[in-house]
Design goal:
Layout: E1 2-6, E2 12-18, H1 23-31, E3 37-47, H2 49-64, E4 69-74, H3 76-85, E5 92-95
Parallel strand pairs: 2-3, 3-4, 4-5
Antiparallel strand pairs: 1-2
Length: 96
């Protein structure tokens, strides 16, 4: 199960597992994001390569407009995925 929504403070809250089965939901949500945004991964358990692709696509779109994504509360496993994929150099990331 995967959920994505805006939190009370405007951060984007992600929870559950962002895998290929949930990509359409995530892509629809991220397509509506404009301007610099914070993704809170405190409740995200897993992200697949398909999920990384959605983040990359969104980051490229935002950076072209002078904006970008910041990802906070990243657990050790997901942080390793970002490091091994090289995505740690594309996003500003804060671990838990």
């Amino acid at each position: 199960m995967f959920a994505i929504e805006f939190g009370e403070n405007g951060d984007i809250l992600c929870s559950g597992r962002l895998d290929a089965a949930e990509c359409a939901k995530a892509q629809d949500f991220m397509d509506s994001v404009s301007g610099s945004s914070v993704l809170d991964f405190a409740q995200l358990e897993y992200i697949s390569s398909a999920g990384l692709g959605i983040l990359l696509k969104t980051q490229k779109r935002l950076v072209s407009a002078g904006e970008g994504l910041k990802i906070i509360n990243v657990n050790n496993h997901i942080h390793d995925v970002f490091r091994y994929s090289g995505f740690h150099s594309i996003f500003e990331i804060e671990t838990q």
